[in-house]
Amino acid sequence: MEIWEYAILFLSVLIGGGVALFLKKNNKEVLQIVLAFTGAYIMGISVLHLMPTVFANHSHTIGLWVLCGFFVQLLLEQLSSGIEHGHIHVHEHGKRNFAIQVMLGLCIHAFMEGLPLSGYEELHAHVHTHSHDHGDGGNFLLYGIIMHKIPAAFALALLLMLSGFSKAVVIGCLFLFASMSPLGAGTAQYFVSGKVDPHIMNILTAIVVGSFLHIATTILFEQDSTHQHKIPIKKLAAIAAGIGAAIITL
Question: What's the distance, CA 13 to chain centroid?
Answer without folding.
Answer: 11
